[in-house]
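Case study 2.
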Amino acid sequence: EASSTVGKGVLQIETGGLYESFEDNSVQSENYVYNTMLIRYGILENVEFRLGWNFIESARKINGEKLDNVLSGLTPLLLGMKIDIAEEDGAMPEIALIGHVFPVFSASSDYRPEYTGIDFRLSLSHTLSEKSSLGYNVGAQWGDDSLEAAAIYTVAYGYSINNKFGAYAELYGDLPEDSSANHYWDAGFTYLASKDLQFDIYGGTSITKGQDLLLGIGLSYRMRKNN
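Prediction:
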């Protein structure tokens, strides 16, 4: 999550799709997310409202044969806020606070959890040079049918190849209180089609057990106040 808000009166839509798979003991699990929608709106210059909803389809295969119990539907609605706390100043990073709730009633029956999910994180970033930057998140989450808390983190490096193309790589994961930690990585490219439209493509996998392949595409579109 970026450490800056979109700005007062600005509407930004981020969406896309992804595929992930994991095989364990000849059972392959596949997830197709057809809509990774996040809507961000600047209430104030330093505060944004956040609304998100994913449509997902999950299937399993045994020795290549797809099972009949395919799950599909909407995951819990994301409702949240982001607040700018500090601007970057020398060694002091840019800092923002992000918080979300995920109401149980908003999910389809196949993905309705037992408990309302909550997460919060601090998002920080440093400018390393004219072409590169480092961002990182630290926080905690509760959800996924459990009241167990999990620490969450992300470390992301971004590089501007030119005024249109960029590249990035990130390490991220979670550390539950009473379960094994999960660590992942991905990397990708961005393309700035115009000052308000950007496309991206990425791929990755897990470092610990849990994900064999992640592939995704996305776009972000910004509608400014003077449009």
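DSSP finds no helices and 14 strands in the chain.
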